[in-house]
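Service request form, structural biology core

Requester: graduate student, group of Dr. S.
Request type: structure prediction, single chain
Budget code: on file
Notes: please return the result as structure tokens.

Sequence provided:
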Amino acid sequence: MTARQIALAALFAGMSALPAIAAAADCSVPAPGTAERGAIMDTVRAPVATELKQAVEFVAHKFKVCTQGGESFAFLDAAVQGPGGSAVDWSITPYADADCSRLVIALLHRQAGQPWAVTELDVCPTDVPWEVWPEQYHAPAELFR
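Core staff response, request fulfilled:
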């Protein structure tokens, strides 16, 4: 090997030992009425309606989607209400006597070309469940900001 080839080999060997730099996630808030927003809300709505034993809608307080490397994560922090803004009948739910915020906190995940799936769902949380989700699920930290 020539001195130049040895130097190039050393350079490439050193580069492969460098840690990979993660690309920044592309984050946005899905606009009301869009197919993406509807798909995410519907994915969360089904298990929440089952748990609360009634039809529900959400009023999003925080809602964001981040895409990175062929996969997407969605975070929803929302108030729960009945259809058309009606009141939820909490007396028929497991939370009838709970002193909670009556919110829904959800983390969803989707691989490219696949439907959304609920990763974590917390109805009526009493703490901050998403604190560990970036590490636990490798979700972009900016999703929760």
